[in-house]
Every structure is written in structure tokens, then in C-alpha cells.
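thoughts on both lines:
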Amino acid sequence: MQVCIGRSCCSLLTPKNYVNRSNFGTCSVNWLAQNGTCSSSRHHNFKVAQAHHRQTWLPGLDPPPYLDQTLAGDFGFDPLGLGEEPQALKWYVQAELIHARFAMLGVAGILFTDLLRVTGLRNLPVWYEAGATSYSIANTKTLLIVQLILMGFVENKRYMDFLNPGSQAQEGSFFGLEAAFEGLEPGYPGGPLLNPFGLAKDIKNAHEWKLKEIKNGRLAMVAALGIFVQASVTHVGPIDNLIQHLSDPWHTTITQKLLGSGS
């Protein structure tokens, strides 16, 4: 078998091989293995090219060996070496996934409520003051206690499933509602409630869906950080920031705001 990419070639002797060489591009290779099966070199050329042209967060960087593209969204980013230990890497993957989902929900909630507030459709506080607002359904302390109980219960079950995958889907572990929260694998709950459209029932072959989720989640985390900084500097919501920028795009930018806040 011979695989050539550009001018570099790697040769492996195989019985009954036929090689058609060229100076540039790829070499077409056909061979018969001893068991009589026939294969094409196109698949092997693609694999070699993929290995040499792996996408990394910094072009030309050699990723650490423990980031071997088996994880969704793996672009070799771990400058501090936090994932060198396999168990720690598993935990960081779950932590990133949860933070990404919270960020997507948070950014969507901030933008939607801020749009309702700015357009006057609802009398809502700006997002960073919403936590101090009193609501008619219950006082702030009651809401906080209820949230701590509910979130604590959910997070405890998630952690137990991380330690012992599948343990929280056993019969009797959730008031007989286990089928409604059919766990696919740690970090990916399923069932009709959390996966109503059945987009990733075969979670082992759902790499594309996982990649889309983590990419959107990382973008949402960056967006959330931007919203936090904007609120700290400008003391208004993101929709107000956008309106101000569009009204004077050359003079109302992050640079002018940061310089103005420091003076």
C-alpha cells in the first residue's frame, strides 16, 4: 500500500499491489490483501490528510495527546493541562457542558426580556436588577429557598449519574418517572421531556449534534461575559447598547466606552 500527499510518500509492502504514481496530488492505489478483500486508497488518503490538517484553536499548534478528537468540540485547547488526568477530563467536559447550557438559557432570557422592556410591551426591570425585584407570587426568600431545593435535587442526581452512569434511570429512583427522563449517557438526558423531538436517540453516533451544542454553548458563554461587562460599564441592558451603537456606530463602541469609563 502506498499513500502520497504532495511530494511525501509512505510505503508499506503488500502482496499483489499496483501503484500508479504522480509527482503531485495523491497516488491511486489498488491492492488485494491476502484474504481476498479489495479496498480503495481514497479512504486512507483522507484519513492521513485529516490527521495532518486537524483543526486546532491555534493554527500550527500540536494538541496534547489526551485530546484525540474523541470529544465533541475538541480543538486541542488546554493550555493549563487541566485534562491530563482522565477522570479530571471527564469532569471538566461535564462542567463545560452544563455551563454552556446555562449560558444559552441566560443569554436568550436576557435578550428576550430586554427586548420586551425596551419596546414597552412589558413593564420589566433591566436584567441585572431582576433579582432584587419583588414578585406577587412569593417573596424573594421563598423563591430563593425553592430554587435551592429544586436545583440541589437536580444537581445531586446529575452528580450521582456522573459517578455511576445509569444509576439514576433505575426503576424507583425518581418516583416512577424514570422513563420520562431516559438517560442516554452522563450529561445527555433523554426521554419525551428533555428530548421531545428525538434528535439524538442514538447518542453514540450523535457527534454532529454534540458539536453544534458545544459550539453554540461556548459562543453563549462569551456573549454572557460581554453582557456582564457591558452592564458594568454602561449601566444599561444589551438592547439599549445595541440601539446606542447603531445610532452612532463610529463613536459608540466598546473602545470609547472603556476609555470613557476609565477617565
Remarks:
- The longest helix spans residues 86-119.
- Helices lie at 41-52, 86-119, 140-163, 191-194, 207-234, 238-247, 254-262.
- Confidence is low (pLDDT under 50) at residues 1-40, 43-51.
